[in-house]
Amino acid sequence: MFPSLLRGAALIAATALFPLLPAHAAAPAVDLSPEQPDRIRTDRVEAAIAALPAGFRFVSPGKLTVASVPGRLPFAVYATDTSTPVGGEPDVAQLVADSLGLELELIPVAWADWPLGLASRKYDAVIHNVTVTEERKEKFDFATYRTDLLGWYVAAASPITRIDKAADIAGLKVSVSSGTNQEQILLRWIEENRAQGLPTTEVLYFDDQPVLDLALQSGRIDAYLGPNATSAFQAAQEGKTRAVGTLSGGWPVTAEIAVAVKKGSGLASAVATALNAQIANGTYARTLARWNLSAEAITESRVNPPGLPKK
């Protein structure tokens, strides 16, 4: 399939999952225009610019070139021009670029391609839901900007009010994606309940997102455990599901999402300084709120914090 058709397909899929809502809906319509007139902008941060290593060279002079992975909101999808990434991660990239006094250039890439592209300096940074891990820290430097959360979601009319611990899922029907970290967490919770003599939890798997959504909304399953960001955004847009609990994506270890840059480049400190300035002046909070990501906000950007351990 030609790239333009792939981009068009991604746009159609995104619109199907997160349709543009009518004016009377509770949540605002999603702006998929390439211009993004409501994107939050900010001023230069001299301290961040001063934190750049002497003689630092960006991939393109005067620009911050950032890899983005269009695929699903609130992270990023293609705009209506089928070529420009828009979403929460491009918005964060814009804050960093503005802080450094640079023009933002977004480069759409496939998820599997970002590590090699960053190592070979095809772009200055990757800003797309990259979790800090000890293994990745051997090859890249990081400046954090969100916590990595998983979310428990139920139908809007469900009697379930909270899921905070293993005992809360005893006897429930729960869906999770196969082969994911959240599946491993769910299975550990089930084993914990079994050891306590509590009723078992039935695990159901769905390969198709709309089918999963329908199963949850109709009560065929009681709860879904998955990435909080996508589920929170969908819940806000559609109003058919709601959150009843969150936990760290690396449970029981805390996990953080970060801007990834080339190892030893010195760029991570400047990015962290930029992000901390935006945290302090409120533009960071407004940017996350635009995409219903406030639950994942941090109070300080850190360079190369402890990452998820090697398996």
From TrEMBL:
<feature type="domain" description="Solute-binding protein family 3/N-terminal">
    <location>
        <begin position="63"/>
        <end position="295"/>
    </location>
</feature>
<feature type="signal peptide">
    <location>
        <begin position="1"/>
        <end position="25"/>
    </location>
</feature>
<protein>
    <submittedName>
        <fullName>ABC transporter substrate-binding protein</fullName>
    </submittedName>
</protein>
<dbReference type="InterPro" id="IPR001638">
    <property type="entry name" value="Solute-binding_3/MltF_N"/>
</dbReference>
<keyword id="KW-0732">Signal</keyword>
<dbReference type="Pfam" id="PF00497">
    <property type="entry name" value="SBP_bac_3"/>
</dbReference>
